[in-house]
């Protein structure tokens, strides 16, 4: 399990927080070097904040989605900052396989400096933790 984000940028730190709470790893961003860690795994969960749309009505809820398998070379960017699909493509290209992958995304509302989560993200944390527990039970 990999939590992505910066704990000094408000809601962006939620991925790191949740991963660390269950013994996972946290990183500021996904980099090609992580491919070696992913190659031997059967399953991986990426946990990250996503910018919630500013709209009236109910707050968006956290989502847990499977990531589709990616063929080597597809979406494998050359940047040192990758999204999960690009990292999985690099893993497959280098090691001939990649784990099945899932992405837990928690709606974020503020990326300002500081360690405090916005009220909207705090409201989403119980649902995010439920999704995380469900994923862990299926492991």
Strand order of the largest sheet: 2-1-3-5-4
Look at the structure and give the mean pLDDT: 90
Which shape, going by the Cα principal axes? globular
The total domain count is 1
Helical residue percent band: 25-40%
Q: How many extended strands?
A: 5
If helices are DSSP runs of H or I spanning 4 or more residues, what is the number of helices? 4
Summary?
The chain is 31% helix and 21% strand. It has 4 helices and 5 strands.
How would you portray this structure in words?
With 139 residues, the chain is of the alpha/beta class. It has a single domain, classed as Rossmann fold (3-Layer(aba) Sandwich). The chain is 31% helix and 21% strand. It has a five-stranded mixed sheet with strand order 2-1-3-5-4. Helix 1 links the parallel strand 1 and strand 2. The longest helix has 19 residues. The N and C termini lie close together (11 Å). The model has no long low-confidence stretch (mean pLDDT 90).
């Amino acid at each position: 399990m990999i939590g992505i984000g910066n704990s000094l940028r408000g809601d962006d730190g939620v991925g790191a927080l949740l991963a660390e709470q269950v013994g996972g790893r946290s990183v500021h961003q996904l980099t090609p070097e992580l491919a070696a860690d992913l190659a031997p795994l059967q399953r991986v969960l990426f946990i990250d904040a996503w910018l919630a749309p500013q709209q009236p009505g109910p707050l968006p809820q956290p989502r847990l989605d499977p990531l589709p398998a990616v063929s080597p070379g597809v979406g494998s960017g050359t940047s040192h900052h990758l999204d999960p699909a690009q990292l999985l493509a690099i893993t497959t290209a280098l090691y001939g396989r990649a784990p099945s992958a899932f992405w837990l995304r928690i709606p974020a509302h503020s990326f300002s400096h500081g360690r405090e989560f916005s009220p909207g993200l705090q409201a989403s944390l119980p649902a995010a933790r439920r999704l995380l527990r469900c994923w862990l039970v299926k492991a």
